[in-house]
Amino acid sequence: MKLETEYTRIFHYCLSYLRNQQDAEDATQEAFLRFFQHPEYQGSYEIQYLYKIAKNLCVDMLRNCKPDQLQEEMTASNETDILTKTALRIALAELSDEEHDMIILRYVNQENLTVIARIFNISRFTASRRLHAAMQKLKSKLREDAS
């Protein structure tokens, strides 16, 4: 496992949940710390354990934060970018946790179907079908928002 690559992927995964760069960095560092404290996690399913640890940390952080901490900083350069990003985030938020995670893992972190299938403990075929269904649902929600 190449740590630099995995660190970036876990960071983006945490950022998709927490929507705050500092919190995502903290969660990522904590995920790796916990991962390395447990040698039994290291082996053929390392990335699966890292994602599981990261997700649990993000969920815990969201449970413990105050509502005003959930505000996202918008740094887009123009109004169109802001509107596009906002529409996408709203549509992603309307998906189930599994659908959201699958889309982030596949299209943001560029994980292959084998890794996604292991994370969700399903077959590659099932992962492919669920991912396809999630993308169709996301596209449908984005079309609804555009009209």
Largest sheet, in brief, is: none
> What's the number of structural domains?
2
What would CATH call the class of the largest domain?
Answer: Mainly Alpha
Number of DSSP helical runs: 7
Strand and helix order: HHHHHHH
Assembly classification:
single chain
Helical amount: over 70%
What is the number of E strands? 0
Binned strand content: under 5%
- Morphology call: globular
> How far is the first residue's CA from the last residue's CA?
45 Å
CATH superfamily of the largest domain: Winged helix-like DNA-binding domain superfamily/Winged helix DNA-binding domain
Low-confidence stretches: 67-77
Mean pLDDT: 82
Given helix and strand content, the structural type is: mainly alpha
CATH architecture of the largest domain: Orthogonal Bundle
Over the alpha carbons, how many angstroms does the gyration radius reach?
16 Å
Question: Any overview of this molecule?
Answer:
This protein has helices at 3-18, 21-37, 46-64, 79-93, 97-108, 113-120, 124-146. It has 147 residues and is an all-alpha fold. The chain has 2 domains: 1-67, Rna Polymerase Sigma Factor, Chain: A (Orthogonal Bundle); 77-147, Winged helix-like DNA-binding domain superfamily/Winged helix DNA-binding domain (Arc Repressor Mutant, subunit A, Orthogonal Bundle), CATH 1.10.10. Helix 3 crosses helix 6 (113-120), helix 4 crosses helix 7 and helix 5 crosses helix 7 (124-146). The model is unreliable at 67-77 (pLDDT under 50).
